[in-house]
Amino acid sequence: MSPVLLVPLVILIFSGLVIIHESGHFLTAKLSGIKVEQFSVGFGPQLLGWQRGETLYAVRAIPLGGFVKLAGMDGSMDAGARSFNAHPLWQRFVVIVAGSAFNLALPVIIFFGIYLAVGESNVQVPVHVSAVDANTPASAAGLQPGDVIKSVNGHPISTFEDLPNALDAAKDTPVTVVVERDGQTRTITATPKFDQGTGGYILGFHPAFTTRKLGPLEAGPLAVRQTGESIAAIAGGIYQLATDKSLGGFLGPRGLEGPVGIVKTTARAAQAGALAVAGVIAFLSLSLGLANILPFPALDGGRAAFLVLELIRGRPVDPAREQVVHYVGLALLFALIGLVTYNDVLR
Q: CA dist 65 to 131, 157, 276, 335, 345, Å?
């Protein structure tokens, strides 16, 4: 995709996710009776702005986030009974975590829409070869579209999951693959290669899929399950980066991605089609929601942690001191974004 189209697409996607996130804070604050002074998309100098009622809606120059400014979050009581700190702790907690909750809910809606529009796709069993990538072990071994994978190194391939398990066990040593072609059994030999994208060994072919149409009652639970599995996959990936030294850590080849990495991921998805872009949006929304709920200063999770501390102590932390902690956290976050972006460029 042309950079002329790609960069605006990424800004549009990320800004949309920010609007979803901040809408969680905005709507729950309004429902709680808390005065919302500003709803901003982006940081830095204001480019556009319009006042509607008591709230200023603004678009700012740096599209790397956004914020909702609530009256009294700095500890002042200028808004009286409508100040943030004048409300019960449970209401303040709901307002703080609502942004992440909205981000975590968006993928459920996306997956629900995909299941309704397209249906549920599963790898055809037994595993059929749909296409073979050029310059891969599969193409070198003579694997062809239409072949049915029967076994690898004597291990039956009954489900698609059996295939990567067999290849990972063999690593980069040659494997014997038994296939069925035109009703005849053939044996080929191929040497798996390690794929950075999947973190496992592959042959380099695409399996055939079957699609089943779904109704709303089936699509809903599947969308929730898909979201849960995606959250588990993200958490598992973070755990692997933290514990598996061979992956190079959070700033290694498969580590955290910043704006440049997100642009590259979106570009690959745009080439694959609308469904792939929808998948990227769901992944980014989950990542944004999970990252924001971490108990780190300046993030929603950090503010929620102060509310939990208030519950335990029986009194709030001094607002001025809390603000200092959040300012330090914000500075550290921008430094991390800069470091991750620099690492993206190196990669």
A: 40, 46, 23, 15, 21
pTM: predicted TM-score of the whole model, two decimal places: 0.80
Please state, as a whole number, how many other Cβ atoms lie within 10 Å of the Cβ of residue 12.
Answer: 11
**Residues 6 or more apart in contact with residue 8 via CB below 8 angstroms:** none
Residue 346 neighbours by CB under 8 Å, 6+ apart: none
Q: And the tokens for 308?
A: 């939990």
CB neighbourhood size of 217 (10 A): 7
Cβ atoms of 16 and 283 within 8 Å: the answer is no
Which residue numbers are catalytic? 22
* Alpha-carbon gap, residue 245 to 116, rounded angstroms: 41
Residue that has been written with the tokens 């990542």 in this structure = 287
Q: What is the pLDDT of residues 299-310, one digit of tens each?
A: 999 999 999 999
Q: Given the structure tokens 């986030």, which residue do they identify?
A: 65
- Mapped onto helix, strand or coil, the DSSP state of residue 176 is strand
Tens of pLDDT, residue by residue over 94-145, are 999 999 999 999 999 999 999 999 898 888 889 999 999 999 999 999 999 9
